[in-house]
Specification:
alpha+beta; Tetrahydropterin Synthase, Chain A; four-stranded antiparallel sheet; three-stranded antiparallel sheet; 11 helices; 12% strand
């Protein structure tokens, strides 16, 4: 029996716990919010949206968040927006936006605005409103912007609704607070309209005064006619009153003339005053029109010129910065190259110094022996340079004019002297070493007069000269050339 009671209590506790768990996972959605359930969805889509009512959020596989439907006011202080005539317009405005509940748009809000604060949503909407207002103002002339605000608001609303739906927002209200411009063009338009209204009022006043004067004159004329008829009827019955009537007629005519003169004078004064006021109004209107044309020319000529000046200045500064950076790069590259060359030259000098030190060590510390070792090392190159001195000579023919004067004095002829001087032009190795202050040792070789090449060539040249002289007849006068 106690086991059954315990089982019943356990089952009741499990049932109560299940009910409490389900109740904790059931979310009720108030009317000013949208419940967004994300995670695994049976019907597909990225999220399930509930507005009003409630829904069960499955644990582990689903989560939920809220979208606030409270309207968000946004102050837009638009400054310097270009109109169709390139006149900068200032339009401070107030916009009211909110998360949309429309099908399709609400899904955009769940995808793009979920977990964003009201400040973040307000900043996003402000950027969109700024851009669309500039686009709309650029398509309208400034006269239409100033005169027809309803049309301006209608165009802004049409343009904004399309862009705001893309992020899940809707436009609730648009309030254009004021429209001004930096050049004073709108103020000039207002002054022109005020002057036109004042002039029209003055003209209507003058017309009413004129009509009043004319009516008064007509009433007086009617009165005089009736009085004249009464007087005429009275004179018909009384002949004795003719003189009185004649005098009365004379007085009457004088009074009529005076009244007529006064009426005509008053009418002309009124007309002159009305014309004077009309001329003053026209002069003021022309002045305002001139101011408007001046403002228009300023906006059409000066403002674009200033913009072009700023653009040219910006391009010039950018080009100067580009040239400066190129020159800086070239200077850095040249400095790096020179540093590398200096490092290589320093390494070469270091290696040469190390080699000279090693040579001194091998020579037992004797500088003369070390220098001699260097000369011996360079000896093949010196001999090679001696051979190169005449190796590349291309001699097809040598012509020597010999007068024969040297044969009698024991000297060789011109041919022998030429060959001897050719060989003697080669610098001897011992003389080359002596020129630099070094005396070569005897084991490097001494000049053998018996085996020297220059005497042998001299003797060969003398034999050739004698053979040619024997073959040719002896000249009678003058020198003889031999070749």
């Amino acid at each position: 029996m106690p086991a059954i009671v315990a089982l019943i209590v356990f089952l009741a506790a499990m049932f109560f716990g299940a009910i409490m768990f389900i109740a904790s996972r059931y979310q009720r959605c108030p009317s000013d919010r949208i419940l967004v359930i994300y995670g695994k969805q049976n019907e597909g889509g990225s999220a399930k949206l509930v507005q009003g009512g409630g829904a069960l959020v499955y644990p582990i596989v689903q989560g939920f968040a809220w979208l606030d439907l409270t309207p968000i006011p946004i102050d837009i202080q638009l400054q310097g927006a270009l109109s169709q005539q390139n006149i900068r317009v200032n339009t401070p405005s107030t916009f009211t936006v909110a998360v949309s509940k429309a099908p399709g748009v609400m899904e955009n809000a769940a995808e793009r605005l979920l977990h964003k604060s009201n400040e973040q949503i307000q900043e996003l909407a402000r950027d969109i409103i700024f851009g669309q207002m500039r686009v709309v103002i650029a398509t309208m002339p400034i006269e239409e912007i100033n005169a027809d605000r309803e049309k301006l608001i209608e165009k802004i609303t049409e343009s904004l609704e399309v862009e705001l739906r893309k992020v899940g927002l809707e436009l609730i209200n648009v309030n254009i607070q004021d429209i001004t411009d930096e050049s004073g063009y709108i103020d000039a338009l207002g002054r022109e309209a005020a002057a036109r209204a004042i002039n029209d009022a003055k003209v209507r006043v003058a017309e009413q005064e004129r009509d009043g004067e004319i009516g008064s004159a007509e009433a007086q004329r009617e009165q005089r006619i009736r009085v004249a008829r009464a007087n005429a009827q009275a004179t018909e019955g009384e002949n004795q009153a003719k003189v009185v009537v004649a005098n009365s007629d004379s007085s009457r005519r004088q009074a009529e003339a005076e009244a007529e003169r006064a009426a005509i004078a008053a009418e002309r004064v009124s007309q002159a005053r009305a014309a004077q006021e009309a001329y003053a109004a026209e002069r003021q209107s022309e002045h305002e029109r001139a101011e408007r044309e001046r403002a228009t020319e300023y906006a059409n000529v000066v403002v674009p010129a200033e913009i072009e000046k700023e653009r040219i200045q910006t391009i010039a500064e950018a080009e100067a910065e580009r040239v400066r950076r190129l020159k800086q790069g070239e200077a850095d590259g040249l400095r790096a190259m020179m540093e590398a060359e200096a490092a290589g030259y320093l390494a070469s000098l270091t290696q040469r110094a190390t080699g000279l030190g090693a040579m001194m060590d091998q020579a037992g510390g004797s500088a003369e022996l070390a220098a001699l070792m260097m000369i011996v090392d360079q000896m093949p190159k010196l001999v090679e340079e001696q051979v190169k001195a005449i190796s590349n000579l291309q001699i097809d023919k040598i012509t020597v004019w010999d007068s024969g004067s040297g044969s009698g004095s024991g000297q060789g002829g011109q041919t022998a002297n030429f060959l001897s001087s050719l060989m003697g032009s080669l610098p001897p190795m011992h003389e080359l070493a002596a020129n630099v202050g070094i005396k070569l040792p005897s084991f490097l070789g001494e000049i053998d007069e018996g085996k020297a090449i220059a005497p042998q060539l001299r003797r060969l040249a003398e034999d050739l000269e004698a053979a040619e002289a024997a073959q040719q007849p002896t000249p009678t006068t003058g020198d003889h050339g031999a070749s």
